[in-house]
């Protein structure tokens, strides 16, 4: 096969309505060099025609782009060898979104779905030498409003109501954490393919036997083109690169072979084992000529979603079982890492997903208001051990279901399921994000609801289910998130979104245990981003939390659609902390509240992963891992890639062992284990008074049961306010720590911890506390990846924190109760 990437020589311009379309294409004026793959906004930004929409209030000045039509044009050369091929195709991997295509003046395509690749046989349209390819992109906003006028206005949460009619990334219309940026352009590669025959699809659904002793790898290959006497060579390589098995068969439109692998090397999620990957090579040959070839990486794993009775409780469990082991699914929701999608590099994907892995996460939910992510995203999830909960791209809206819309959705679903189904990381297909919830809110679902008003239910419960069960029958299809039967809020079956904290009644974050579900697939607490990001994205005169620009970069809205993020942040601060006195303290306070909320959430949800027959809560996915622009949001990593304190809190709570302590009448103590083995452990408990003086200590010897919670004998102390610490040791090594300071923090004056800090070398700092201290936060700006941060120390304790890129940087140190941050400079001892 001869393949040409058609990515060079492109120009773009805004459509001039006073000219005919062809006259507009012929005009010499207004054209700008264009990037393919790319978007209009990216090229206008690169050529200085617009200001950075992420800076200051510039978002408001670029809205005209989404209201205009845009022309793209290029010329490319076709050789006689290309034309001699039996088949010549143009393949558009992705067009954003409403696009009509002309080749040499002949219309060859009308596309209206950003998520559907398009392939057109163009041999009869081509000529030897120069050929002209022209694209017109309509305004998604204008087209959506035309469809809305035709079919009716529909309820949505976030963005323009017309978005539900357009199969475009929904977050481009604006969300409660993101700006409005209605991109247009060929956002994925464009290829010209000349061939006799080619490989169209390879499907290899690995089946590990229940005893885990062997695996079947049925390989199905679909071919396109003219088939005569070609041969398919199919080879399976082990994780070490050595040939395991190979076969060759006569090529046909649909060919199948079967491999059986004895004693397969099993793939486990992050934290539960290794991630060995086999390689499947498929090669189509005519004699010694290779016509086409494809390669897949496959993990050998047995995965089920188990829904069974929970002992002593109503409802059913909802836990992922991998290689016969129940897994606590700790992780995060993923939004696209930018709005200008072609800016997201492979390395950026690697950095972000590695941050998730390093936080001890084992699951990522690809949220339904974004995109089906790039191939490299799923490759990395396979490699890093991150299971993927994959939504279809419907979010927070009452979507239509007329015939042409359903047909487009079916094409989309078939294309994306085929593209992604071979990935070991794909653990579940999910119909939508919160569409059952919004339907219930308007009386179209739930108790007493009129489901005849819920048009898209047929998409979620019939169309998408049929596609998934036909194309990927080994992976569970789930109708929506949240979804659990007749009421999305019960939490007794399926998954639940816990937004009683932050949204709804704004319950205290200490009450996460009161709003659990069998699988909590969304929950979160907002905070400000890092100081470095604020300084990079706003004019200096606006560096205060109440400024117009700061509020503009806080997109959260209330039930009335009006901004209320700052108000809710203020409430949670006021309930727990003393008021901030400057921007730096505001950042620290909001991030501390977020981190403490995550401590309660992950600790309490994981506590309910109690063992066989009692997996009452089996998943916790924070909203959200990442940001797509500079904003105050629920993200635990901001768009400058700086983790917030909550990131490190979650990392500790999701480690193989975590300790829970909670002051009720006595000090309640438990340990959660993610190990498949039993461990003998020692637990040290310490208590201090508010002056930082030691009060009491005790030691418990604990047998930690495998992969569940183990309760520890409570510690009886007097009822005066005390500070408690716990350290869990296995083989004399500390494997988990926990602490509890009396709350609300604003009521108490904690003793000066008399911190001592010193650089040990170019990548590590030692911190010593003379008195108990909470929330020690080290800030060295962007590009400094700490192994730990936001730590609590007991009296006399020293800890060493490491960061590979620390060399020469000044570090700002802050903790709960500090009057101001302290600077620690290289080679300076003490603070």
UniProtKB/TrEMBL annotation:
Stretches assigned to the Glycoside hydrolase family 2 immunoglobulin-like beta-sandwich domain: 198-301
Substrates-to-products reaction catalysed: Hydrolysis of terminal, non-reducing beta-D-mannose residues in beta-D-mannosides
InterPro entries: Beta-gal/glucu_dom_sf (IPR036156), Beta-mannosidase-like_N2 (IPR054593), Beta-mannosidase_GH2 (IPR050887), Beta-mannosidase_Ig (IPR041625), Galactose-bd-like_sf (IPR008979), GH (IPR017853), Ig-like_fold (IPR013783), Ig-like_GH2 (IPR006102)
GO cellular component: extracellular region
Protein's UniProt name: Beta-mannosidase B
Keyword Transcription regulation among record annotations: no
EC number: 3.2.1.25
Keyword terms: Glycoprotein, Glycosidase, Hydrolase, Secreted
GO molecular function per UniProt: beta-mannosidase activity
Mannosidase Ig/CBM-like domain sequence ranges: 666-747
Gene3D superfamilies, A to Z: Galactose-binding domain-like, Glycosidases, Immunoglobulins
PANTHER family: BETA-MANNOSIDASE
Source species: Deinococcus cellulosilyticus (strain DSM 18568 / NBRC 106333 / KACC 11606 / 5516J-15)
Main location: secreted
Alphabetical GO biological process terms: carbohydrate metabolic process; glycoprotein catabolic process
Lineage: Bacteria, Thermotogati, Deinococcota, Deinococci, Deinococcales
Domain called Beta-mannosidase-like galactose-binding: residue spans: 26-188
Subunit: Homodimer.
Localization per record: Secreted
Pathway it works in: Glycan metabolism; N-glycan degradation
Pfam families: Glyco_hydro_2 (PF00703), Glyco_hydro_2_N2 (PF22666), Ig_mannosidase (PF17753), Mannosidase_ig (PF17786)
Residue span, Beta-mannosidase Ig-fold domain: 751-802
Family: Belongs to the glycosyl hydrolase 2 family. Beta-mannosidase B subfamily.
Broad class of enzyme this protein falls into: hydrolase
